[in-house]
């Protein structure tokens, strides 16, 4: 679905920010791009939807090379939610904001209202549809931005620290919604984060450091390289550490890598 080859990019001359990056993302997969601040994650998100010029190398999405000519086609497949929702607000009401992408897709007006209400409800923002987006809290703005992108029924969604302003419960709600859409509609998800816990539920993990891909593989392959992760200042998720410790004393947890799963297996 996505193939990035030998991608290089600099904002300023002679200061490379993305260095010979290669990775592939399969259709319907959940990929996490992880790395500490400044490693180039957001720059990759911007490059993937053609927001930055003068990159070298190639990006292919859904069989189309990312070029000026194919930009409209690619943006009809890929949506992105950035960390700072203020950059994405343009409407005078929350409903207008959710509608923005749908209007670009020329969704018939009759269908639009129903879609807006459905997605506002999914992100718990139904009561705010006629409110001014600028008056919302950061977390509420993030919910609206997520609703707007999910409502477009795209093939690929890039979430760039998209729930960073939500409290833990809010994060959980939005993550559950994204997981549901990922499973039900075979949505391809690229989640950009520095939250190592997210790695556990991914199909594929790309670890970036100083603009380079340091590791790429399944969560298990990545987490097994704990010393390298620590060197990259990435924490090993608590649950994974606990599982490894248990395995060391002969208790093997076969099932999922979540705290409830481990606790329930231990209680059996
Ligand atoms: P991350 O998302 O991993 O925190 P970014 O992609 O935002 O990293 O940034 C990667 C590098 O590019 C950093 O060194 C950052 O300072 C630099 N950078 C980001 N945006 C710009 C910009 N608009 N102009 C110049 N340098 C930038």
Describe this structure in words.
This protein is α/β, with parallel strands linked by helices and 268 residues long. The protein folds into two domains: 2-231, P-loop containing nucleotide triphosphate hydrolases (Rossmann fold); 237-268, no CATH class. It contains ten helices and ten strands. Strand 4 and strand 5 (64-65) form a beta hairpin. The radius of gyration is 19 Å and the shape is globular. The termini are far apart. Bound molecules: adenosine-5'-diphosphate (ADP). Residues 11-12, 17, 35, 37-43 line the site of adenosine-5'-diphosphate. Adenosine-5'-diphosphate binds next to strand 1 and helix 1.
Write a concise keyword list for the protein shown above.
268 residues; 10 strands; alpha/beta; binds adenosine-5'-diphosphate; 2 domains; single chain; six-stranded mixed beta sheet; Rossmann fold
List the helices and strands and how they pair.
Elements: E1 2-12, E2 15-25, E3 30-34, H1 41-48, E4 56-61, E5 64-65, H2 71-75, E6 78-81, H3 94-104, H4 109-122, H5 138-150, E7 156-160, H6 168-185, E8 188-193, E9 204-209, E10 212-217, H7 219-223, H8 226-231, H9 238-248, H10 259-267
Parallel strand pairs: 3-8, 3-9, 6-7, 7-8
Antiparallel strand pairs: 1-2, 1-4, 4-5, 9-10
The structure holds adenosine-5'-diphosphate (ADP).
């Amino acid at each position: 679905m996505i193939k990035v080859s030998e991608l290089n990019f600099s904002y300023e001359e002679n200061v490379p920010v993305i260095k010979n990056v290669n990775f592939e993302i399969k259709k319907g997969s959940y990929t996490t791009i992880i790395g500490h601040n400044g490693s180039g994650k957001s720059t990759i998100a911007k490059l993937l939807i053609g927001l930055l010029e003068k990159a070298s190398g190639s990006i292919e999405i859904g069989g189309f090379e990312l070029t000026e000519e194919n930009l409209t086609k690619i943006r009809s497949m890929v949506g992105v939610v950035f960390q700072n929702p203020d950059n994405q607000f343009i409407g005078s009401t929350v409903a207008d904001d959710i509608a923005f992408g749908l209007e670009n897709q020329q969704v018939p007006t009759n269908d639009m209202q129903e879609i807006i209400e459905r997605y506002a409800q999914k992100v718990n923002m139904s009561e705010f549809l006629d409110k001014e987006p600028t008056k919302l809290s950061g977390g509420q703005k993030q919910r609206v931005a997520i609703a707007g992108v999910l409502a477009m029924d795209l093939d690929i969604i890039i979430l760039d620290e998209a729930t960073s302003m939500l409290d833990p419960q809010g994060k959980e709600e939005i993550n559950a919604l994204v997981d549901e859409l990922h499973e039900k509609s075979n949505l391809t998800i690229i989640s950009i984060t520095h939250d190592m816990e997210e790695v556990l539920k991914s199909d594929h993990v790309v670890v970036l450091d100083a603009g380079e891909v340091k590791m790429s593989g399944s969560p298990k392959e990545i987490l097994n390289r704990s010393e390298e992760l620590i060197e990259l200042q990435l924490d090993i998720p608590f649950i994974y550490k606990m599982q490894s410790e248990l395995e060391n004393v002969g208790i093997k947890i076969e099932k999922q890598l979540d705290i409830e799963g481990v606790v329930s297996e231990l209680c059996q």
